[in-house]
Amino acid sequence: MLAAVVPARDEEGRIGRVLQRLLRLPLDLIIPVVNGSADRTWSEVLAVRDPRVQPLHFAEALGLDVPRAVGARAALAAGARGVLFVDGDMAGHLEPALRMLLQWVRTGRLDMALCHVRRSPPVHPGSMASRVQALRLELNHVLGLRALGDAIPSHGPHAVSRRFLQAVPLRELALPPVSQALAVRAGLRVGVGALLDHRDLGHCPRPAEHRRRVGETLIGDCLEAIAAYRGQPRTRERDGVVYLGYHPERRFDLLEEAGREPGGAGAREVQTGPGEWTS
To answer: Model pTM?
Structure first.
């Protein structure tokens, strides 16, 4: 069984297109994790009438990347031997790349198949984009994966094997670079499985403040990943600066609560609909 996990918050007008494109792939299960939405994202998901789409709904926002862990837990419980992660705003034409990612995992050649997302290099050396890229490169250098360039699971779709999900604590999927580091530490195979241009992702434009906070989140996540790989105490600090970004908004408490529910997910399910998992 191959599954896809699709985190979605306020993705009305996009999530339906993402799901329709995923339905054209060789997937047995698609798990949208709708959380904290104030628009019609949930209704748009329920309008997709296909039994393979099995959504989870949380009234509260789970925070950046936590929906990945929630969905992965549900996919693992359902028996998935490979899981594809695609954000709910990735409405671009990604099908060829997504098929490649699934193939790498399905055949057992990789346990974590990443996308290398090509984009223009940062213009200013001291900019947030430049600092984020430097930490991504540093992380892969520390992991012995220099050939990956700056590819990490925080950026772009990626896929993981069942062996990955059984070896890496599911909580760590909420910090994607940490999950990558722990996979390497466990001797799993991590590599690039597809190439994309940034414009192919189909992201909607985000405000500058959002981009800054995401950048700080990624830097902090990479710092934690380096420490985790080295077996050192985890830290998000470097040179006297603590990089938090959206990290404090990650609802690990809701992730743990979902794990205690029968079936391992749906702790905050508030509505029912066709093809939906309920708690």
So the answer is: 0.92
